[in-house]
Amino acid sequence: MSLIITDECINCDVCEPECPNEAITQGEEIYEIDPNKCTECVGHYDTPQCVEVCPVDCIPKDPANQESEDVLWVKYEKLTGNPGRS
């Protein structure tokens, strides 16, 4: 799954710079995550960095964008041009 930012977002700006895929941008009211770019930090970190830094815990998995870890690795490879798991 990709992640989603909920309405509890306080626009604190800490998540955006943590995203290695530049999937987080400021939306009209709150930050938003582009599901086409979100890999849940697969390929970069062991845990999603936006979730780690969010002070209000408003970044859950998006049930509308369910993806397996294998799919997230493929997305990582496409976004970065780096080979995935060996």
From TrEMBL:
<dbReference type="InterPro" id="IPR047927">
    <property type="entry name" value="YfhL-like"/>
</dbReference>
<keyword id="KW-0411">Iron-sulfur</keyword>
<keyword id="KW-0004">4Fe-4S</keyword>
<keyword id="KW-0813">Transport</keyword>
<dbReference type="InterPro" id="IPR017900">
    <property type="entry name" value="4Fe4S_Fe_S_CS"/>
</dbReference>
<keyword id="KW-0677">Repeat</keyword>
<dbReference type="InterPro" id="IPR050157">
    <property type="entry name" value="PSI_iron-sulfur_center"/>
</dbReference>
<protein>
    <submittedName>
        <fullName>Ferredoxin</fullName>
    </submittedName>
</protein>
<dbReference type="GO" id="GO:0046872">
    <property type="term" value="F:metal ion binding"/>
</dbReference>
<feature type="domain" description="4Fe-4S ferredoxin-type">
    <location>
        <begin position="31"/>
        <end position="64"/>
    </location>
</feature>
<dbReference type="InterPro" id="IPR017896">
    <property type="entry name" value="4Fe4S_Fe-S-bd"/>
</dbReference>
<keyword id="KW-0249">Electron transport</keyword>
<keyword id="KW-0408">Iron</keyword>
<dbReference type="GO" id="GO:0005737">
    <property type="term" value="C:cytoplasm"/>
</dbReference>
<keyword id="KW-0479">Metal-binding</keyword>
<dbReference type="Pfam" id="PF12838">
    <property type="entry name" value="Fer4_7"/>
</dbReference>
<feature type="domain" description="4Fe-4S ferredoxin-type">
    <location>
        <begin position="1"/>
        <end position="29"/>
    </location>
</feature>
<dbReference type="GO" id="GO:0051539">
    <property type="term" value="F:4 iron, 4 sulfur cluster binding"/>
</dbReference>
